[in-house]
């Protein structure tokens, strides 16, 4: 069985771009702590928006979907799940809430990972929730012609409990030694977790929940306010490509985790950048900017098409009705152009044509 020894990372020569990403995220973390200490009321709205986006995006990656309207109703507890997909969506929401609220009391141990997996699948009633896999699973790729090719064969079911135990122990030791940055260790742990693929179902969703948990436990709280899962879903092809690069030779302990490390650092930095942009809009609000001013600023800086929901998410201090009124005024003024109607409405800058 593969050994999990992160000491090999201690003496590794890291590429300059990796080191720069780590340094930039450290700087963002320092500013993050300052923003959070100020605790503007609007941050609470960011939390609720991020929860919905994280739950929707992480499940969407796995083909588990519902409508945006249903998603909002489910989160506001104005309705109950009406099918298995919605049960699984709400299971993700449950575990996400647990991690947001109790991360400091969730150690990185197999028993706790199993409990999180149990809660993820509890609403859907899957009997294998909270248990390691009992059949061999495979990571397959479907070619354009419909042919299915096995891209990676994870660890066998009989070896899975020991592998997860060794993985957790290796991570805990490496964090305690403080010789390698947590920002390097976290994606390495997640890459190894996905190569083990310890469950019959839910491995991808669990990996993203564990990413959030590990970031929380190391003081990187941006996932509370900005959806890391949404950033991953938006770049899903790169997500899978970098995982494929990083798991080549994994069983022989010859794999290189750097492509996945680089990708996850870029995702995290993008989340911090978005967080600071939204906090900047909040500050403008407190300095007297109107709803119209903020929506106009968003539109003028936005590349490509966007929806009313995108504006609401980026301007959490403004109500939906004010956003829509501002978009209507901007359309009438010729600043932006509107396409479609109802839920299919899109906007883009007039000067882009």
UniProtKB/TrEMBL annotation:
Annotated Fido domain residues: 108-266
Residues annotated for ATP binding in this entry: 201-208, 239-240
GO molecular function: ATP binding
A Pfam family assignment: Fic
SUPFAM superfamilies the UniProt entry points to: Fic-like
Transmembrane segments: none
InterPro entries on file: Fido (IPR003812), Fido-like_dom_sf (IPR036597), Fido_containing (IPR040198), WH-like_DNA-bd_sf (IPR036388)
Site (Important for autoinhibition of adenylyltransferase activity): 62
Residues at the active site: 197
Keyword ATP-binding carried by entry: yes
Keyword ATP-binding: yes
Keywords: ATP-binding, Nucleotide-binding
PANTHER family in alphabetical order: FIDO DOMAIN-CONTAINING PROTEIN, FIDO DOMAIN-CONTAINING PROTEIN DDB_G0283145
Protein name: Fido domain-containing protein
Species for this entry: Oribacterium asaccharolyticum ACB7
